[in-house]
């Protein structure tokens, strides 16, 4: 409970504030903008900034009412410059795009990228350094934090102030409010499903951030590189990305085979959604592991999430419980998934899915 | 080559946790504790490397209260050669844990440090990356396959990244954090559990290691996540489609 004295004080302040409104406000704003300046380690692909990075900008924007936001893009060649010019207009609150163009950043190696972030930070002061909680952000930012001797905050789902954040712990079974009290930059990775991107209005599109190239002549990398990129095997899917899809259809072990899992894929296709899977389905080899949804896989928050033959282990629920509508189809009426489902149907998925395929309206 | 494996004692993954009434944290009294599942995988991988003749010794390290000895004994029963217990009654942020591991690495000089990719209690996913940074070693996080080349002194690691797999080759010494699919950890057999009782566990403290304790994050409160309002069980596909169309407006 607030004490009377405190309330009085607050009231007095308010009066003062009213009296010298103009002077006071302009002072506080300049003071503030000097304090909050955010560097975002951006991710881009084929000349485009990733949607997750734009969500991170949305998060950065809620750190304070007035803050300057710089996006750091690194890579090499023309696709980097394309991504930079797109990044400049990706969100009205981005004030600057910093471009590090060098062969050194061709591949996402944590050692090199962490050094780059530290290099950029030394040139300009930042109060906050952010990235999204993707495999890239989680790989690089803790390394940056250790170099700077500060503690990072992982998977922020809510920003309460410039140094107060909420993050899930114990597979999302508890929410922890933390305050960063250290000196130096506050380092955060952002759970992007918690910061949806609102469509940009036509007005703000005209606003473009300045793009500046970072002078890398002083950027020293160890002469003997200790880690090398060998290759990548990408799961190419034509369906929407699991992390940002509007609809996600997930299958569990009950699908029984790779062949049967195709039913899930067909249903997803019909609804224009992405396919997800439980760990059991991945371990059984029905689908590749980057489709895994849960504490150790991807966190999704689609408008519609449908689970077929998914029991609903704690670790899986951790990845889906922020979905708007959850539908569960399971033979076992005691399956824990029904406790979080908005609509549950107790039945055999081998009968339900074909019926759904037949009766669902065609997507427009 | 020695391999250092960090193992954490956490609330068992199958336990449904309860938030304390005073919002100070999660109730861990009288709750089943066990080795963090990712740490088991890390230890298993280290043991396999040793069994393949690439390493001489596997050392398990745990930092925490006296009960961490049980976690270390589990590790020794799985096959680790010896344990190091850094005893402390306070809980540390990953940065301090990373500093403790660094100072142990300075003494033990391992060729590899294995950690799990994250602990299932704080879900931080930071310690491995931080140890690597403090030692200035290369890191390979979220590993799903590790192949060692003894002659070249490198490890080739497949990493689970968003959208697929990425392969890196890192010079040793290196830090590797393990993902779920790396291996299936073994069970400790009864004879090995008996044998583990005679394996050495060295006790040390944070003061002995001269680690500066960083506490720049303050926990204000721990609360239960908002409950979803209870749903309905529908009786047919038609009813389900009707609800999705007319009530939830999602199809």
TrEMBL record, chain A:
GO terms for biological process: fatty acid beta-oxidation using acyl-CoA dehydrogenase. Transmembrane segments: none annotated. FAD binds at residues 253, 278-279, 292-296, 309-316, 330. Pfam families: ETF, ETF_alpha. Its main location: mitochondrion. Keywords: Electron transport, FAD, Flavoprotein, Mitochondrion, Transit peptide, Transport. PROSITE patterns: ETF_ALPHA. Gene3D superfamilies: HUPs, TPP-binding domain. It is found in: Mitochondrion matrix. GO terms for cellular component: mitochondrial matrix. InterPro entries: DHS-like_NAD/FAD-binding_dom, ETF_a/b_N, ETF_a/FixB, ETF_alpha_N, ETF_asu_C, ETF_asu_C_CS, Rossmann-like_a/b/a_fold. Its cofactor is FAD. This is Electron transfer flavoprotein subunit alpha. The lineage of its organism: Eukaryota, Viridiplantae, Streptophyta, Embryophyta, Tracheophyta.
Automatic annotation (TrEMBL), chain B:
Coiled coil: none annotated. Keywords: Electron transport, Mitochondrion, Transport. One of its GO terms (cellular component) is mitochondrial matrix. SMART domains: ETF (SM00893). Transmembrane segments: none annotated. GO terms for biological process: amino acid catabolic process; fatty acid beta-oxidation using acyl-CoA dehydrogenase. GO terms for molecular function: electron transfer activity. It is found in: Mitochondrion matrix. Pfam families: ETF. SUPFAM superfamilies: Adenine nucleotide alpha hydrolases-like. It comes from the Eukaryota. Heterodimer of an alpha and a beta subunit. This is Electron transfer flavoprotein subunit beta.
């Amino acid at each position: 409970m607030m004490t009377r004295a405190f309330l009085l004080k607050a009231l007095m302040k308010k009066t003062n504030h009213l009296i010298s409104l103009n002077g006071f406000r302009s002072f506080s704003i300049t003071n503030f903008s000097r304090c909050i300046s955010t560097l975002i380690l951006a991710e881009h692909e084929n000349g485009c900034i990733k949607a997750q990075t734009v969500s991170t900008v949305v998060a950065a924007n809620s750190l304070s009412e007035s803050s300057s936001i710089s996006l750091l893009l690194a890579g090499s060649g023309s696709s980097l410059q394309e991504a930079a010019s797109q990044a400049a207009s990706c969100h009205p609150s981005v004030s600057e795009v910093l471009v590090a163009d060098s062969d050194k950043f061709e591949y996402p190696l944590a050692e090199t990228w962490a050094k780059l972030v530290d290099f950029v930070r030394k040139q300009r002061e930042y109060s906050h350094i952010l990235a999204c909680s993707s495999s890239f952000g989680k790989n690089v930012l803790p390394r940056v934090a250790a170099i700077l001797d500060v503690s990072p905050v992982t998977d922020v789902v809510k920003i309460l102030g410039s140094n107060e954040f909420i993050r899930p712990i114990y597979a999302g079974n508890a929410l922890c409010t933390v305050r960063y009290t250290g000196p130096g930059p506050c380092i955060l990775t952002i759970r992007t499903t918690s910061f949806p991107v609102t469509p940009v209005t036509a007005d703000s599109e005209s606003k473009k951030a300045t793009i500046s190239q970072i002078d890398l002549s002083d950027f020293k990398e160890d002469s003997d590189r200790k880690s090398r990129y060998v290759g990548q095997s990408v799961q190419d899917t034509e369906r929407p990305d699991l992390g940002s899809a509007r609809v996600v259809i997930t299958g569990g072990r009950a699908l029984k085979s790779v062949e049967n899992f195709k039913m899930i894929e067909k249903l997803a296709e019909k609804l224009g959604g992405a396919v997800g899977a439980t760990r059991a389905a991945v371990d059984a080899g029905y689908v590749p592991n980057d489709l895994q949804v849960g504490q150790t896989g991807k966190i999704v928050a689609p408008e519609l999430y449908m689970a077929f033959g998914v029991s609903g282990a704690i670790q899986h629920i951790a990845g889906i419980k922020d979905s708007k509508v959850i539908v569960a189809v399971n033979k076992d009426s005691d399956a824990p998934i029904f406790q979080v489902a908005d609509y549950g149907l107790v039945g055999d998925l081998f009968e339900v899915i074909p019926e759904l395929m037949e009766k669902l309206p065609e997507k427009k | 080559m020695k391999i250092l494996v960090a193992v954490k004692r956490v609330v068992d993954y199958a336990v449904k946790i309860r938030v304390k009434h005073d919002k100070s944290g999660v109730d861990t009294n009288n709750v089943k504790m066990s080795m963090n599942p990712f740490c088991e995988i890390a230890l298993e991988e280290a043991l396999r490397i040793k069994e393949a003749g690439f390493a001489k010794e596997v050392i398990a390290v745990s930092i925490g209260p006296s009960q961490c000895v049980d976690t270390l004994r589990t590790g020794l029963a799985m096959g680790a050669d010896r344990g190091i217990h850094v005893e402390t009654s306070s809980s540390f942020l990953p940065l301090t844990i990373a500093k403790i591991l660094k100072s142990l690495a300075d003494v033990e000089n391992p060729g590899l440090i294995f950690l799990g990719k994250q602990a299932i209690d704080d879900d931080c996913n930071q310690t491995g990356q931080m140890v690597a940074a403090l030692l200035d070693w290369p890191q390979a996080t979220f590993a799903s396959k590790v192949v060692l080349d003894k002659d070249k002194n490198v490890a080739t690691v497949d990493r689970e990244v968003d959208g697929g797999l990425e392969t890196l080759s890192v010079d040793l010494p290196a830090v590797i954090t393990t993902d779920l699919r790396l291996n299936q950890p073994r069970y400790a057999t009864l004879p090995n559990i008996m044998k583990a009782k005679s394996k050495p566990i060295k006790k040390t403290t944070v003061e002995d290691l001269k680690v500066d304790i960083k506490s720049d994050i303050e926990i204000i409160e721990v609360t239960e996540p908002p409950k979803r309002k209870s749903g309905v069980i529908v009786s047919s596909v038609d009813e389900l489609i009707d609800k999705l169309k007319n009530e939830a407006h999602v199809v």
